[in-house]
Design brief:
With 388 residues, this protein is mostly helical. It is built from 19 helices and 4 strands. Strand 3 and strand 4 form a beta hairpin. Helix 13 packs antiparallel against helix 19. The radius of gyration is 21 Å and the shape is globular. It is found in: Cell inner membrane.
């Protein structure tokens, strides 16, 4: 509507900032009680945040939407912090990274379904987007009279609200299912002092650098997926068309996640991580330097190389932390803060319109490129250290 790119990234800031806020409390909760209770509390917080979209739309307050997402993400922090180490604990240590890759293959499937909802039922029905000035490549919402603005705002916020309310109800149903299903209690219940645990984790070189690599990965992922629509719009495509390109990227991500999980049976995880990061460097360089549809295709192809990164970094970093797994998991979930900070910096670059000879949208992808450099270095470093 009338938000700048920079202000709109408060959505990412709240969404990924919520992970940082709640990761350590979630880890301490799971350690004291159980992974199952952590999952149930996470689902409760998630449903609360989603259902708060209803009053947020009624009040038409951007800050209320941001706050609702913040609470929703408290739930996600509990789910990430409890589910990931739970999956790692369910079998042999040697296959833990592959197991987590397989389990997380279902995450992008959910994201893909969400993108279909966004394209078919949200973006296609927004009145604000119908006031698009193709000559200037921007939405002229701010030029409308106040009565039209009010009517469009009321309509569009309802379109955005309804999927979240439906999602909140689905999550409540999932909470009931999880509550009645038996889960093996594999959490560490012995009292481990958080400061002592943190000191051990900070001395662990592979874990310590893994947190940095995870910050870089989440930042790269969110930047590539958030701004693919703006990249497409800069080429004269509609938001809906940009979202379809995002869906293709997610489809590639899903297929590549499944293939890379199979490859991990034969190739060292750190080595494969390094090569995939080099692939990401190559495709983002294409997105920066090629102005046109081939550049957009390079950006879409980046998802192929991002596919194995999150669970693989997670598995490598937690591979040798012993009793500190739960708190170590919290540190890696807190690394999701990269998705809160870096998109805002990228949006600031995009708001410049041009950077030298390049459109600012293209130039802004130098940030994810640098993130992939960090991940490639971590792959090489962790391979060297673990082989020693």
């Amino acid at each position: 509507m009338e938000l700048t790119n920079t202000k709109a990234t408060l959505i990412q800031f709240a969404f990924y900032g919520g992970y940082t806020t709640m990761a350590i409390p979630a880890a301490l909760f799971a350690q004291k009680y159980s992974y199952k209770k952590g999952v149930l509390l996470g689902l409760s917080l998630y449903a609360t945040g989603a259902l708060l979209f209803y009053p947020a739309a009624q009040l038409q307050m951007f800050g209320f939407f941001v706050g609702s997402l913040y609470i929703l993400t408290f739930g996600l922090a509990f789910l990430e912090t409890t589910c990931n180490p739970f999956i790692l604990s369910l079998g042999a240590k040697e296959t833990a990274t592959r197991r987590l890759n397989l389990a997380q293959s279902f995450n992008p499937m959910g994201s893909f379904l969400g993108m279909i909802v966004a394209a078919r039922f949200v973006l296609a029905n927004l009145n604000a987007d119908k006031h698009f000035d193709k000559a200037n490549n921007k939405i002229e919402f701010s030029t409308l009279n106040e009565a039209t603005k009010a009517m469009d705002r009321l309509h569009d916020l309802a379109v955005i609200r309804d999927p979240y309310v439906a999602l909140g109800l689905v999550v409540l149903a999932m909470l009931v299912v999880i509550a009645v299903v038996k889960m093996p209690d594999t959490a560490h219940h012995e009292q481990i002092h958080p400061l002592q645990s943190m000191k051990r984790l900070m001395k662990n070189k592979v874990y310590r650098t893994g947190v940095i690599a995870q910050i870089a990965y989440v930042a790269a992922q969110i930047m590539c997926w958030t701004f693919i629509i703006q990249y497409a719009e800069n080429l004269g495509l509609s938001k809906e068309a940009g979202q379809y390109h995002n869906m293709v990227a997610m489809g590639m991500f899903i297929l590549s996640r499944l293939v890379s999980t199979f490859i991990l049976k034969y190739v060292n995880a750190s080595k494969l991580l390094m090569w995939f990061a080099i692939g990401g460097i190559t495709t983002t360089a294409g997105a920066i330097l090629i102005v046109g549809l081939p550049g957009l295709y390079c950006l879409v192809a980046t998802s192929i190389f991002m596919s194995l990164m999150f669970p693989t970094i997670y598995g490598i970093a937690l591979g040798n932390v012993g009793q500190d797994t739960t708190l170590g998991s919290a540190g890696l979930v807190m690394a999701i803060v990269g998705g809160a900070i870096m998109p805002m910096l990228q949006a600031m670059i995009m708001d410049l319109k041009t950077v030298g000879p390049l459109p600012a949208v293209n130039a802004s992808f130098i940030l994810p490129l640098l993130c992939f450099v960090v991940i490639a270095l971590y792959g090489k470093y962790s391979y060297t250290i673990l082989n020693k």
